[in-house]
Specification:
The structure holds three protein chains of three kinds. By secondary structure, chain A is an alpha+beta fold. Chain A is built from 17 helices and 19 strands. The relative contact order of chain A is 0.16. Chain B is globular, with a radius of gyration of 21 Å. Classes of the chains: A alpha+beta, B mainly alpha, C alpha+beta. Bound molecules: flavin-adenine dinucleotide, protoporphyrin IX containing FE (2 copies), iron/sulfur cluster (SF4), FE3-S4 cluster and FE2/S2 (inorganic) cluster.
Chain lengths: ~650, ~240, ~250
């Protein structure tokens, strides 16, 4: 199909864009809503909130998840909190400031209009969730408490202990459960979507595989909404849950949806370093720890002494040294790179010399153990479980790990991809965070998309299809898609080689973290671009997938997901190579100041890179969406 | 704003409240707890009453007869006893046993085979043997009534109506009978030690400030009642009574 | 460290299933329990056997997907810990470890150590929510919640829906899960309008699948989130109240 990149950003002053737009777009009258069928893939914050709201509005909804229950979605793991411009603490916050901070935090690579809308609806999210019974932290007066988070200079983060994501997801899940009971929404759990079906250039439905029985079925609808999360697991080791994957988004990409800014990935500074090569995933230690912990390494390389025996004057509190004004609260991308440089000068600590210290000794002596325990008790406990070290006595060991992916399916202001009728929400789209996401703003975006954006914008598309039936699932387009899915399953099972899926995934991860991780170089990226297809080829020759396709087969699931990670990984490297600048989570060693700070190139790269799939082996085609900044002046991010 | 109505609710609501509640597991637990409490009260005062044995034959007989004579001559003999002690007891026991039985069945259905290996942290011997202990108590009760209340010949040959003391001694002088009583008390101890704690939970009596007293109560109650009961057969064996 | 694993293998829901023994060698103390199983599975795969199926996802004790009966204890020997947070340093080299799936008629085995916990979702669908359509909510601070109430609700809301309570309960009762779900909402002001409908619907749906509570208290110990059985007592109280008062008199 011919691709047109129209962001559909409404005209008018930024404060009025969203209102004008909502007034401008068409509606579907209540009586007609039940005539429409909508497919939602994903039951995380974005998917569950969207499906529940569609159900409330009266649409016929089918919701799919590969988890056993909607409540398992990876959103459950979010710890720190969710932002909103409520300004309850009266510390000068406002919709505009949240908007401004987010655009700046994203290193001026996001779409102003989307970000402003996000800030606008952020307040309604808090109202909605509170009414649902989300037990946000409260002050003794019974009103909501806020904390400052991720280097913001105002306290705008709402939280529920260290389990904010869990509580928000339970809220959305319960809203969804209510619709399930009413029958307006039908749940298909343990059902993995393996292809998007497109007819006459419009989304017609999806093909799913029942993970328990292996049965492959087609489902059609007037519109398909993907809310399938991020792709950090392309790095093998990340803070994401084991099952997080790019398959849904990637299948859509192969069917014509553009993939935007794939190289924008976030490496989170405070994670527990790997302990051995069989490590299956990395665990995040909430960013909030940086409010009281001090980060340091010994000045002497490969210092053999245990932390407590390193005298004060032989410690380098490097963040405080390099960024006096923000110190330990420097943004994620900045502090992650600083840590990386320390390891490069092999100042790393711990048994494997793969970490830096996060020290609470000062805070404990200043505030007392009780206060620290009240603030971080559950996190310290989590840390001790994993490392068997007591953070009250010895400093924590932390190191950056892949955590979040700003890139994703390209969507317009209505959250519709370039494929009519195909939408993307939450982490699966690229929309609001530019080149770097601020803490506590992903939960905000997921819920904004699902509760307050898509329910309005989808009507504008559906209006045209009143009294039309969805494409029947026995249509050839569905048959072909099913055959293709079955084909891949059979092919994977038939190889019967000598290497396991995890073995290949681990190798892919090593390539990606080395060449497309914290620091990227032309040479490295070119190397990766040559290595990845070779690895993929070997995978297809030598992978071993035991068992059959007719019963539950976890290896088969992993293998299928890895196939798409190979192709995504290559695109990430191409995008990183193409973007000859350093911005946010994307750091090209060729473009930095002598102090090692990122250097943007607004002349050439103030745009979204949206890639079009051109078929196996063929190089992808890049489309550009220019980014115009009318309300925020482009400036160099400085946290010194 | 719509809400999900459980169709089952609709159907059930027409039944009388008591049936309605008893038809659910949680309701049955209320029934067990309440019938259990009646049982607890009874055995407590029964234990006290038994201690009259230490005052000698006359007193105990008097007490025994006394119970039966309450209300005379206004109402026929033993009527009050029947109305206010025996009837409630029989009812309570019936309810208690029925609930215990149907819940046990329900749990049987809910389980899917046992575990190859099993370690308990909280569930103790008492809580896991409520049913068996109950059955033993039931059997004991049958014997006990035949023995000391109805005076079934086969059970207590030299039983004489009204001669509570003599009957008691006559029966408990036989060491196997004493043994039976002791064993029964063991079962009772287990049963009420968990029961007297568990009933608070079942009845929703829960207040963090006082919760720890619930165990203490159960333990103390068990020791007093069972201890008190045991004095009599043991004393008979030692010849302190008789 | 070297270990012997005695693992329940069951090809599918209808298969009878049996135990199989496996040797795993050279496991590091630092490895997590599930990583140990990953390693075993890699060996099995290369040896041409079917790897052991077990449920897991977040691997940090929050999603509630994992759950194995380890040596007769739900989630294994470390209290207040989900299976995925358990580390091998809790075991001795040379140990024999027995792995079984959650066992309850309401949790049919799907394969090996994986069970179907859909019954939990049915309980929530029966009434485990507050009916507020998107957009219908007032400003969040218009509903002040006494801090202790909000803390108590949060304690209950911490439930991760893992099913260990059912697995550990000698009666296969789901009282702790249901009580956690009910009390999370019934303790909050926002939850009051539907308080009675909720507890009745959820308890009665629970009873369609699970056993009854004899107050063994085993669930409380198995629970990785330390949900207290106090919630069970509170739920029982709410239930009788809801059954006793006439719906029309609610709030009088
Ligand atoms: C450890 C951790 C901590 C975090 N902390 C915070 C925080 O404090 N604040 C914050 O704002 N953000 C935080 N984030 C980021 C945030 O949690 C996520 O970005 C956000 O929850 C993503 O939500 P989602 O709905 O887009 O996707 P997810 O929650 O990942 O849901 C994806 C859904 O899609 C389904 N799915 C995926 N693929 C398929 C398929 N092929 N077929 C069928 N179903 C499919 C899955 O089953 C799942 O239901 C954190 C992330 C991590 C990893
Ligand atoms: C060793 C302990 C016990 C002794 C010595 C004992 C003694 C007696 C005696 C002497 C009587 C006859 C009273 C009379 O006829 O006036 C009696 C009656 C009875 N006992 Fe016991 N008893 C003991 C334990 C128990 C226990 C544990 C229970 C219940 C679980 C029990 C239940 C009864 C009942 C129901 C009666 C009949 C009361 C009536 O006449 O209505 N006894 N007992
Ligand atoms: C006679 C046969 C009896 C049987 C079969 C029996 C059985 C049981 C069982 C199975 C329970 C546990 C119920 C549950 O929690 O699921 C129970 C509880 C209890 N029983 Fe009995 N019992 C018997 C007699 C008695 C007697 C005589 C007493 C009093 C002395 C008694 C007092 C209690 C109490 C207080 C409880 C606690 C109820 C609760 O947990 O709420 N029982 N009984
Ligand atoms: S109550 Fe505890 S054990 Fe039961 S499901 Fe919830 S978290 Fe798991
Ligand atoms: S173990 Fe079972 S009996 Fe009740 S207290 Fe817990 S549910
Ligand atoms: S895997 Fe998520 S809780 Fe264990």
């Amino acid at each position: 199909m011919t691709v047109t990149l129209d962001s559909k950003v409404p005209a008018g002053p930024i404060e009025e864009k969203w209102d004008n737009h909502r007034f401008g777009i068409r509606l579907v009258n209540p009586a007609n809503k039940r005539k429409y069928k909508i497919i939602v893939v994903g039951t995380g914050l974005a998917g569950a909130s969207a499906a529940a709201t569609f159900g409330e509005l009266g649409y016929n909804v089918d919701v799919f998840t590969f988890h056993d229950s909607p409540r398992r979605a990876h959103s459950i793991a979010a710890q720190g909190g969710i932002n909103a411009a409520k300004n309850y603490p009266n510390d000068g916050d406002s919709i505009f400031r949240l908007f401004y901070d987010t655009v700046k935090g994203g290193d001026y690579r996001s779409r102003e209009a989307n970000v402003y809308r996000l800030a606008q609806v952020s307040n309604e999210i808090i109202d909605q969730c509170t009414a649902q019974g989300v037990p946000f932290a409260r002050e003794y007066g019974g009103l909501l408490d806020n904390r400052s988070f991720g280097g913001a200079q105002v306290s705008r983060t709402f939280y529920a202990r260290g389990q904010t994501g869990q509580q928000l997801l339970l809220g959305a899940y319960q809203a969804l459960a209510r619709q399930l009971a009413e029958g307006s929404v039908k749940l298909h759990n343990r059902s993995e979507m393996l292809d998007v079906v497109i007819k006459d250039g419009h989304a017609a439905g999806i093909v799913v595989r029942d993970l328990a029985t292996g049965e492959i079925t087609s489902h059609s609808a007037h519109a398909v909404v993907l809310a399938t999360g991020g792709y950090s697991n392309v790095f093998y080791l990340s803070t994401n849950a084991m099952a997080c994957n790019v398959t849904a988004a990637w299948r859509a990409h192969r069917k014509g949806a553009l993939f935007a800014n794939p190289c924008y990935t976030q490496i989170h500074p405070t994670c527990i370093p790997a302990s051995d090569e069989f490590q299956s995933k990395l665990t995040l230690m909430s960013e909030s720890l940086r409010n009281d912990g001090r980060i340091w390494v010994p000045k002497k390389a490969e210092d053999p002494r245990p932390a407590n025996q390193v005298p004060e004057d032989e410690r380098d509190y490097y963040l405080e040294r390099i960024y006096p004004s923000f110190g330990n609260l420097a943004p994620r991308d900045v502090s992650s790179r600083a840590a990386m440089r320390m390891l490069e000068e092999n100042l790393g600590i711990g048994p494997l010399r793969n970490g830096v210290y996060l020290d609470f000794a000062d805070a404990i002596s200043r505030l007392g153990k009780e206060t620290i325990e009240a603030r971080y008790g559950n996190l310290f406990e989590m840390y001790e479980r994993i490392t068997d070290e007591n953070p009250y006595e010895v400093p924590m060991r932390i190191y950056p790990a892949p955590h979040y992916t700003m890139g994703g399916l390209w969507v317009d202001y209505n959250l519709m991809t370039n494929v009519p009728g195909l939408y993307a929400l939450g982490e699966a789209n690229f929309s609001d965070h530019g080149a770097n996401r601020l803490g506590a703003s992903a939960l905000m975006q997921g819920l904004a998309d699902g509760y307050f954006v898509i329910p309005y914008t989808i009507a504008d598309y559906l209006a045209d299809y009143l009294n039309t039936d969805p494409v029947p699932t026995d249509d050839p387009v569905f048959r072909e898609a099913e055959a293709a899915v079955q084909g891949q399953v059979d092919r994977l099972l038939s190889i019967n080689g000598t290497r396991t899926v995890d073995d290949f995934h681990r190798e892919l991860g090593k390539i990606m973290i080395e060449h497309c991780g914290l620091a990227r170089s032309q040479a490295g990226l070119e190397k990766a671009i040559s290595e990845i297809p070779a690895l993929k080829e070997e995978f297809w020759k030598d992978v071993k997938v035991p068992g059959d396709g007719e019963s539950l087969n976890q290896t088969l699931e992993k293998a299928g997901r890895l196939v798409d990670f190979f192709e995504l990984a290559e695109l990430m490297c191409r995008d990183a190579l193409d973007r000859e600048e350093s911005c946010g989570g994307h750091f090209r060693v060729e473009y930095q100041t002598e102090e090692g700070e990122a250097v943007r190139d607004d002349e050439r790269f103030a745009h979204v890179s949206a890639w079009e799939w051109k078929g196996e082996g063929a190089p992808p085609l890049k489309h550009e969406e220019e980014l115009v900044f009318e309300n925020v002046a482009l400036a160099t991010r400085s946290y010194k | 704003m719509t809400t999900t109505e459980q169709p089952t609710d609709q159907r059930r609501r027409r039944r009388p409240w008591i049936v309605e509640v008893y038809s659910t597991d949680v309701g049955k637990k209320y029934a067990m707890a309440i019938s259990g409490i009646i049982g607890l009260l009874f055995i407590f005062f029964h234990m006290i009453g038994n201690l009259h044995a230490f005052e000698g034959a006359a007193e105990l007989n008097e007490y025994g007869e006394g119970l039966r004579d309450i209300g005379e001559p206004l109402v026929p003999r033993t009527l009050i006893l029947w109305l206010f002690l025996r009837l409630p007891l029989v009812l309570a026991l019936a309810v208690h046993v029925h609930a215990a039985y149907s819940l046990a069945r329900q749990n049987q259905r809910a389980r899917a085979g046992g575990y190859e290996m099993r370690n308990y942290y909280a569930a103790n011997y008492a809580s896991r043997t409520m049913g068996w202990a109950g059955v033993i108590i039931l059997l004991f009760l049958a014997w006990h009534l035949a023995d000391l209340t109805w005076g079934v010949g086969a059970v207590n040959p030299d039983f004489e109506r009204g001669e509570v003391y003599q009957n008691l001694v006559a029966s408990l002088e036989r060491w196997p009978v004493t043994l039976l009583y002791v064993v029964a008390q063991g079962a009772l101890a287990l049963h009420i030690w968990h029961g007297a704690w568990s009933m608070f939970q079942s009845l929703g009596v829960n207040n963090p400030r006082y919760n720890h007293f619930r165990r203490t109560f159960a333990t103390a109650f068990t020791i007093i009642v069972v201890g008190g009961f045991l004095l009599v057969p043991i004393s008979v064996q030692l010849g302190i009574i008789g | 460290m070297d270990l012997t694993l005695k693992v329940w293998r069951q090809a599918g829901p209808d298969d009878a299933g049996q135990f199989k023994s496996y040797q795993v060698k050279g496991i590091s103390e630092e490895a997590s329990f599930l990583e140990m199983l990953d390693i075993l599975n890699e060996q099995l795969t290369l040896a041409g056997d079917d790897p052991i199926v077990f449920d897991h996802d977040c691997r940090e004790g929050i999603c509630g997907t994992c759950g194995i009966m380890i040596d007769g204890v739900a989630h294994g020997p470390q209290l207040g810990t989900a299976t995925c947070q358990l580390h091998m340093r809790k075991f001795q080299s040379g140990d024999t470890i027995v792995l079984e799936p959650w066992r309850s008629a309401a949790f049919p085995v799907i394969k090996d150590l994986m069970v179907d916990r859909a019954a939990f979702d049915r309980i929530v669908e029966a009434g485990g929510y507050i009916s507020v359509d998107t957009g219908a909510a007032p400003d969040a601070n218009l509903i002040p919640v006494p801090q202790p109430a909000s803390e108590a609700a949060m304690d209950a809301a911490a439930c991760i829906g893992c099913g260990a309570c059912v697995a550990a309960c000698p009666n296969s009762a789901a009282q702790l899960f249901t009580a956690a779900k009910v009390m999370h909402l019934n303790l909050l002001p926002q939850g009051q309008p539907e308080r009675h409908r909720r507890v009745v619907a959820m308890v009665e749906t629970m009873e369609e699948y699970f056993g009854s509570c004899r107050n063994h208290g085993e669930c409380e110990f198995a629970c990785p989130k330390g949900i207290s059985i106090d919630n069970i007592a509170l739920m029982n109280r709410d239930y009788l109240k809801a059954k006793t008062i006439d719906a029309r008199t609610t709030g009088r």
